[in-house]
Amino acid sequence: MTVLEGQPQPVQRMSLGAGWRRAWRTGDWWRHLGLGAFLFFMFLPFVITIIISFKDIPQFDHFPFTVTFPLHPDNYLEAWRIVSRYILNSIITSGASVVGMVILAAIAAWAFARYPFPGREIFFFGVLALLMVPGELTLIPAFLLVKDLGLLNTRWVLIAPYIAGGQVFAIFILRQFFEALPGEMFEAARIDGANELQVFRHIGIPLSQSIIGVVAIMHVLSTWNDVIWPLVTLRSNELMTLTIGLYAFRTAWYTIWGPLMAGYVIASIPLIILFAFTSRLFVEGLSSGAIKM
Amino acid sequence: MTTEEIRAPASHAAAAGPAVPQDRQATLGQRIYRYRFVYLMLVPTFALLLTFNYYPAFMGLYRAFFKWDIGLPPEFLGLGNFEKLFIRDDTFLKSLRHVSLLTSWRVISAVTFPFIVAELIFNLRSNVHKYTYRVLTILPAVVPGIVILLLWQFIYDGTHGLLNAFLEGVGLEDWQQPWLGSPKTALYAVTFMGFPWVGGVTVLIYLAGLQGISDEVIDSSLVDGCSGLRRIFSIDIPLILGQFKLIIVLAVIGGLQGWVAVFVMTAGGPGTASMVPGLWMYNNAFLWNKMGYASAIGMFLFVLIMGLTIINVKFVKTGDY
Fold first, then answer.
1. 3-state secondary structure of A205
2. Do residue B18 and residue A190 have CB atoms under 8 angstroms apart?
3. A-chain residues near B306 (CB < 8 A)
């Protein structure tokens, strides 16, 4: 409201708008209050996790939820010794499957988007229909399948199904994007003598970097967080991914809260780092569920 | 005339890239042959989909009608598995009640709390503040789900838990419980986990909807003296019904498929006090090797999820524009 003082009197309509706007602005304080309250409770568990992660056992017994000195950063060393292997396994699994998934999905989506081949819509429906199939239906036969294939307790038992399943949504999203790309550009390239592969490699892909980033990040998130499939297909501790590794860690270290919480913190760091560098893609990817309807 | 002449070569060029010449006289066989490299592009995708998605899906539907214990030859039962499921399996029937409670609360909480947060953020004046709050609400979604589940397990812990410590702090020692260990509270503890129930993703979806409302609509509502709660109920909510519909579908599917949380928190216990159908399927398959019976539960979940999704998409009307 101070902004308006001393300025020439605006016309009636304007001052009405300004009045409303002023009302919105002066109302902002309680919005901050409300959001602050929500955020406080959302972050409270994480803050307490970090506090506990620096405690030894007596400190936790006496003052579980407040900061106590001396801090015990050695909890992190202890947790790292156990969790680091699981993190590495998750990076290998999610990394390999995201690379394979993106390559296959991009090629298939390109085929669907740019060539009017006979049977295109039938094949595309064959991909889309899988969006309706929940994991509950396929879990048991898929388990018996990988068992028969002799894949149990190998890295491939995760990577291959992740590539297969991850393609479905990615093809759906990428096809829409590829179709919307301007065709003139590809024409021009063809006239200049580029073959189909070059058009795809040097024009299609570079133009689609950001949407490919979105589907890649969504895939990493979902494979990184998968619990059930690694749980039923992996036995050896050396291959466990982060989710089931942490679950086993919790069972083994129950009530030794300091290192346990330190392990939870360490486990959260890789995705937070990824988020820090690609927050825009994250936000788009996470809300791109909205594309579906 | 001239437009014809100009357009003709252009359209010819557009339709006739080197690889995609289009002549309607070509037979189906010729057209398939012409696009052979495109089919080649689809081979790896479909090889994987057929192996790891289609084969298990059809196998799951097929074996639901068999008694199929590992190591023994499958034995056709007709509808026997389903008969047992719905008539004689008390745990399964109990698990249906549990999953209804879980799913109902998921839907209720998903259409209220994240929407409130989205409205609060949307109505902020400063874009910098809007952006900051958006990032802050999405940040917990980046923490691995298993960490959140294990943290809530700790919050509910009977001897060291945060919830019991809080109750002691406010003088309600009588209410202290081993929340996940008591048959009376286990199901409710799992259901109401996640306070304050603000999913960052859901907030973003609502925000995207609110930002899609045109400024003219909001401005004219302001001129007409419609603001605050009144605007939320008579403008915002009707205009983003599509987002609500999506959130409800996702919450229903998430509730029916959300048995992993139950598995990690209580494993369905104590006893079967917090059993849900997905977990009952898992137990039948991987603890007791009753693959056919478990497949029947899987098929039931598939039909249920698909039915509810179709009902929602078809019959919940939205003002799509």
1. helix
2. yes
3. 132
- As a whole number of angstroms, the distance between CA B14 and CA A166 comes to 33
Q: Which residues contact A249 (CB under 8 A, 6 or more apart)?
A: A82, A83, A86, A260, A263
Residue B41 tokens, joined: 């592009």
Give me the helices (H) in chain A, please.
Answer: 12-52, 57-62, 74-114, 120-128, 135-148, 156-180, 183-191, 196-199, 205-207, 209-224, 228-233, 242-253, 257-277, 279-287
Asked whether A154 and A173 are in contact (CB, 8 A), the reply is no
Work out the angle between the directed axes of helices B291-315 and B55-63 (0-180°, nearest 10).
Answer: 110
Closest Cα partner for B47 from A107, A135, A144, A213?
A: A107
CB contact under 8 A, B123 and A143: no
Dihedrals phi, psi of A230, to nearest 5 degrees: -60, -35
**Partner-chain contact B56 A247, CB within 8 Å:** no
A225 contact residues in B (CB cutoff 8 A): 144-146
Q: Which residues of B touch A274 (CB under 8 A)?
A: 142
pTM value is 0.83
B253 sits in which H/E element: helix B241-257
pLDDT tens per residue, range B215-234: 888 888 878 877 778 888 88
CB pairs under 8 A between A and B: 271
The answer to whether the peptide bond before residue A259 is cis (omega within 30 degrees of 0) is no
- CA gap B57, B301 in Å, rounded: 13
Give tens-digit pLDDT for A202-246.
888 888 888 898 889 889 988 998 989 999 999 888 899 998 998
Crossing angle of the two packed helices B90-122 and A12-52, in degrees rounded to 10: 130
CA distances from A96 to A162, A220, A223, A238 (A): 10, 10, 11, 17
Hey, which residues does B76 pair with through a beta bridge?
Answer: B66
